[in-house]
Amino acid sequence: MSDSEALLNRIHPWGWRLSLSVAGIPAVLFTLGALFVTETPNSLIERGHLEEGKKVLKKIRGTENVDPEFNEILKASHIAHRVKHPFRNLLLRRNRPQLVIAILLQIFQQFAGINAIVLVVFITLGFKSDASLYSAVIIGAVNVLSTLVSVYSVDRVGRRMLLLEAGVQMLLCQAIIAVIMGIKVTDQSDNLSHDWAIPTWSLGPLGWLIPSETFPLETRSAGQSVSVCVNLLFTFVIAQAFLSMLCHMKYGIFAFFSGWVVIMSIFVLLFLPETKDVPIEEMTQRVWKQHWFWKRFIDDDERTINGDV
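Structure tokens predicted for Sugar transport protein 13 (309 residues):
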């Protein structure tokens, strides 16, 4: 018996324990990393730590001249504290652009197949248990690397460009997967991992980043709660429907996902404003009032408040 075989025999009874233990390593790293994460100026100011918030703001901006931005954040914080019913305010006309964008991004994230592929396809395609485990490891590695790509590029190329570029690539990759499934080639792990990488560096993280940048302070907590609920709801819907859809539609299910990718890309192109380098407190003036479609909700709401209509 070779040394490697002897090692495998010793490890075998402990396999699941080792696998579970290894999963704890990222949790430990996450916990240690959290100790070095700086609180955001908005959070500090909203909780009354004004001097600390100003100090962090200076550190982030790299300049001592942060008084105008600090005053804007302070003003927004005072407005947020006066709001007694954030969920009710979320339904106001002036908050409709943020709410619609947040909800649709979560729907697009799931209906583009981002979770269906990674959770179900490998097993459904007849992979054995070992191959499924290897595929999960590959997907996890691609996930980490793609997230690093997103972190590096999101503030360089912008949110819209990253989503539009990903839409094209997801469409092509899903078409390739559909063709491969159509001609009944069983080993598709490479193509599936490529398709998973693209939403991981775009639609995956941006589905959470963009709502956090667009909701004003007075409705941010409520808006993020709605985003999470919608995401989990449609994750459940896809998880329940995917196997039945795959059995009936076969490779055509990727045409279904591709259709949603096209819809997402059109929505991003026409209705999603760029939020790069725009502070939350300036979103109304610099983004919503300048957008060809969403500005009508802001303008109409202001006229209603002023008694003009």
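The chain has a mean pLDDT of 79.
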